[in-house]
Each structure stands twice: as C-alpha cells, then as structure tokens.
Amino acid sequence: MTIADDIDVTAVAPKTPVRGMTLKGVLYGTLSTLMVVFCIVPFLLVIVISFGRKVDGAGWVWAFTFDNYQRFFVGILWPDEVTFLYLQQLGYSFYFAIIASVLAVLTALPFTLLLTRLKRSKQAIWLVFILASLSMSEVFIVMGWDILLSNNSGLPKLFQVSGLTQWLKDVGWFQTLRDIGLANPRNVKFKPSEFATILTMSYLVWPYAVILLYPALSRLDPSLSEAARTMGASRWTVTRTVTLPSIRLPLMGTTLLLFVFLLGSYVSVSVFATPDKQTTAVAIYSNIRGSNLDAPFGSAQAVILLISASICLYFGHLLNSKAEAR
Amino acid sequence: MPDLILSGVSKSFGNTRAVEATDLTFAEGQLTALLGPSGCGKTTLLRMIAGLEDPTRGTIRLGEDDITDLPAHKRKFGMVFQSFALFPHYTVRENVAYSLTIGGIAKPEALEKAQTLLDTVQLSGFGDRRIGELSGGQRQRVAIARALAQEPQVFLLDEPMSALDAKLREEMQVELRLLQQRLGITTIVVTHDQREAMTMADTIVVMSNGRVEQVAPPKEIYHKPANAFVADFIGKANFFDGEYRKGAVNIGSFTVDVPANFATGSPVRLAIRPESACLVAERGQNCIDAEISFVRDLGPVREYHLRTDIGPLIVEYAGTDGMERVAGDKTLVHLPVEALRVYPRAVA
After folding, report:
1. How many other β-carbons are positioned within 10 Å of the β-carbon of residue A104?
2. Which of A127, A216, B197, B299 makes the best surface tag, with the fewest CB within 10 Å?
3. Judging by beta carbons within 10 Å of its beta carbon (0-12, 13-18, 19+), is residue B25 exposed, middle or buried?
4. CA-CA distance, B307 to B294, in Å (whole number)?
5. Under an 8 A CB cutoff, do A230 and B98 touch?
6. Which CATH topology does A85-140+202-325 take?
7. Separation CA A221–CA A228 (nearest Å)
8. Is the pTM of the predicted complex or chain greater than 0.80?
9. Are strands B31-35 and B186-191 parallel, antiparallel or unpaired?
10. What is the pLDDT of residues B99-115, one digit of tens each?
11. pLDDT of A242-262, one tens digit each?
12. Which of B79, B102, B149 sits opposite A233 (nearest CB)?
C-alpha cells in the first residue's frame, strides 16, 4: 500500500462549483437588483418624466417633448416673450451654494488646523461633538436659526434691548445695514435675507467641512511650516506659500463636495431667502409636490441641476489636474 | 561670524524636564555634534537654538546679541530637518530659492542663485524636477542647499542622515563635512550615531536625560570619557563594579591597579575599551586568568569573549597577534593601567 493510496481523494476534491456559484450569484444578483430598483430606476424615471407633458388642470402624461427644457431656458411664453426666471433660479442655486461652501471651508480651515494641534484626547472629544452635530436634520437646524434670527425673540431683539441698535444708529452704520437689507427703520432684521440664507447653509455644512479637512490637515507635516519659518517666512507667508498649497487638493475637494451638497439645499432657502431669490431646488419641490403639480417640468429642472453640478465637478477636476501638472 | 552662546538654557514640557540648565558655546566656524540616545533632549536644544521652541529659562546669545526671544523667522538660521521638509508643490530650484523670494529678491535673480547652490551640492541638472522624483541622498542635498541659500550665520541639522541608507550616509557625512569646512559656517548637527559625530564634528556634546555629560573633541571623548555613560555610549567598553582601595580596585577577590584616586571604600566602576585589553602568555601586573567562550572574526578585527574571575570581558584585536585561539582555550588577559578608567558609582 502506498502513501498515495492513503490519501482520501474525496476529502480534497473540489466541491461542486454549482453550490458556491449559486450563493455568490444570489448575493450579487440581489445587490444588483437593489441598486437598479432603488438608484438607477428612480434616476431614469426622472429623466424619462422630464420629457413628459403636463395636462392642464390634471396630472401629466408620458410623452417625448423638449418643451420642458425649452421652458427652462427661455420661459413658457417663448417665442412671444423670453423670460429667464428658471435660469435665474439656477443662478441663485449656484450663488448661494458657492458662497456658503467657500465660507464654510474658510471658517472650518483655521478651526481644523487648531484642532489638529490639540492633544489626541481633546481632538477625539471635538470630533465626537462635531460628528454628533451631523445627526441634526436640516429642518431642525433651520428652525433653530429661524428662532435665533427672528425679529421678536432672536438677535434683533437682543440688539434692541442691549442698546446695540441705538449704538449702530449713533455711529452711522445702521444706514449701511438698511442699504444691504439687514435693517428696517426701527431695528436690525436678519430674515428674510441673503445673509441669513448663506449663514444657515454654511452652518449646515460646516461640520462636514471639518470632518473632510481633518484627515488631510492632521497628516500635514509640521516640519514644512517650521522649515519655512527658519527661512524667514512670517506666519502669514507660511500659510500662503506652504500650508495652503500643501492642502490645495483637499481644500478644492471639500469645497466642491459641499457646493454640490448645497445645490440641493431646500429648507434654508425656502425659509430665509426672499421670494425673488428662490433656487432651483425649491422650484423643483413646488413643481413636483407643491401647488403646480407639474412633474415633467420639475424633472427637467432636476436633470438640468444635475448636469450643471456635473459640469462644475468636471471643471473642478480639470483645474485640479492642471494645477497638479504645473 | 560670532560665537553662539547658551547660558543656563533649560526646557520643561509640563512636569517633564526635557533639557536641564545648559551652558554651551558653539565656536565660530566649527561643527559641533549634539550626540545622545533618543529622548535625551538634543533635538529640543537644537529647536531652542532655531527659535522653534522657547526656553523655559536661560539666554541664547549670538555674539553680543540676545536672541532668546527672537522668533525663528527673524533668526534666519539655516536648518535641515530629519524629514528634510522639502515643499512638494515646488520644483527643486524653487525650493532652494524659497528663502530668497520671500526675502524680497526678484524671482529670476533668486532662481539664478538657487542654481549656483545646486551646482555646489552637485545637483546641477535637477533644478526643474519635482521633489517626488529625487532619491533620499538628492533630497538631502536639496535641503542643505535650501538652508544655505539665505547665507545663515548658524547652520542647524537635525539628524540629517537618518533617512539615508548606511553606504550613502557615510558618503554624505564626508561631503557635508567638506562643504562645512569650505563655507566655514558655524554648524550644529544633532545625531544619535556616534560614528557620524566622530566623522564630522570638531566638538562633540554628549547628552543624556536632558543633561550635558561631556563636551570635548572626538578623540578626547573616545579616549577620556568623562563618565561611565559616555564610555558606554561612545564605542564599546567592558565595565566592572568594585570598591576603591589605595590605588587599586577590588572586584570580588581580585585586585586591579588603577590610575585614580578616590576615598578608600568608595564604590567605583572600572571601564576598559576592548581594543585596550590584550591576551598575554606571561603573568604580570593586572593579568587575570581567562577562558575563551566565543570568538568572533569581524574581518578587520577579531573579538574574543572571555570568562574571567571579575566577570565577562571582550578583547578586540586588529590584525593578528600570530596566535590562533579558539573557544575553550585558557589564557591570560592583561588590563593596562593607563587604559583603565575609573568612575564613581552610585549605590542603590
């Protein structure tokens, strides 16, 4: 009897592939189906509906018309009259999203830099606190700011009671606030205003900015700025010539991400922006769920918003690549 | 260029004393090595000199000028960091020109001077490369050129060779020393590598636990270590604990004559370098019976590990004494009086 005879061939023989393949196949199949059903199908539906047609006084019907897209760019009265209402809304979407995301990143940057210089234990406490703040919904945050900025119980009241309003009037700055829409003849007023809209939107994404910047800043080699200092660079020169260029990519990435996130911001704009400065996101809602009941036009607006965001991301990527190549 | 003088400089981080009160003078145009094990305070001392840490106490003077409170960017001491700290977003030439451009020199002129410095460190054709495209040795040269660009009065290097492989490190030690001698800049190098310190330095400052243990030229540090720590840290040494008795040290039942004077009964530590002890055939002063336990042939030297009445002992021979001894051989080991160093020993 040889050793070969002792080996139990059946024990080492590969299992029939059918069972393994089936399990794997079922798992992948289920996941793919879920992806298709919950992600791709709704997305495709929005695109398809955007070519649909609204029935006056009723819902909408399936169709293939570019009327909704045409309406977005030149208005519903075209060719008799050209209006840019929807383009203007898209413009405000970009305007609010760009300023709020840049403001959030600019304020989060020094904070995160200081955070990375704290002891590990203190960093952990701050990060937990910031992560916890992410659990608050947009509605909850906007409600808080709504109360804080309200004329009767918020900051304007505090300004009046503390005499700050009177002081602003005395030094002549009150008129400036009136000129930019942050005061009425009696007191300061923060809402509705661009200021309140941008402030709330920035506040909304500020924790994201910190969380996104933190890994890059904590990896930043402190000897780089120390080297610059030993070569005669002041703190500002170090920030300008060493720190910021070293974190250019994470900075750009964070700003773009927040920008795209804020393009879809709905609650803060609908609460704080004046009616003439509403954004595409608000218009989409009022078309699909609001009084208009014009799902095809709402879908067309959603598709255009998505394409615009994609173009911005592409240009952001292009800029990054060029900067990298340089 | 004036001397750099440290008077009573100390540094504490909370309750931890990183550097004890230190008085040191770094002579003009000389290369001084701050040598010691990790955590001995040498880098903290260098950072205080650079202005990157504020001393808890003491003053730092450059000649007559008190620079203790002068911020780093106003001292303009050229510094090479352990990680080289080269700016990845600039080219090699832009890195070298950095101190010049922020100092207000026009960019073309700064880049031209940077090119001259790159020529000095033998990196002429590398000006347009990115930092990521350089090897470790090339990065170190760029870091040196960059630090020298501002024509510093004092040149500081924090473990500049630690990121290099052994062969390159040896080459760069010699190159750096030659460059320093040519430029005549007062230079302070932090290192934990005694070989590096011995190769490059005019003066070595040995540090331990935040304290300066000895300041002396390399030769003196090696041959006349001030205490047992220095003897142990610099090179190799055999140590024996004993008690001093009238010109000799009693180690167990054995007596070794020594060239030292202590109070009778003092606990002492005897040290001798492996190359100073020798194996002999005839009995004489300070000769001890020994048995060879292990022989190690290291090429240029042969190491005999011995068992003796006073404890284990290593003897090192350069070349050959004509006698091939093997493990298990009985022999005599001679401890020459003039080669013995005796240090006071603290008793727990």
Report:
1. 26
2. B299
3. middle
4. 9
5. no
6. MetI-like fold (1.10.3720)
7. 12
8. no
9. parallel
10. 999 989 999 999 999 99
11. 999 989 888 999 999 999 999
12. B102
Name the residue among B157, B190, B156 with its Cα closest to residue B42. B190
Residue B150: closest C-alpha in chain A: A231
Evaluated on CA atoms A50, A56, A62, A63, the torsion sign reads negative
- β-bridge pairing B267-272 and B301-308: unpaired
CB B118 within 8 A of CB B196: no
A226 vs B contacts (CB less than 8 Å): 52, 72, 79, 81, 85
Domain coordinates in residue numbering, chain A:
1-49, 85-140+202-325
The phi, psi pair for B304, rounded to 5°, reads: -105, 120
DSSP string spanning A77-93? TTTT----HHHHHHHHH
Q: What is the largest CA-CA distance in chain A?
A: 111
Among A90, A87, A39, A86, smallest CA distance to A309 is for A90
For residue B286, what are its two tokens?
């300070």
pLDDT of residue A1: 46
Q: A45-71, pLDDT tens digit by residue?
A: 999 999 999 888 778 899 999 999 999
Sorted by sequence, the CB contacts under 8 Å of residue A82 that are 6+ apart come out as: A74, A75
Distance from CA of A192 to the nearest CA of B (A): 44
Helix (H) or strand (E) holding B327: none
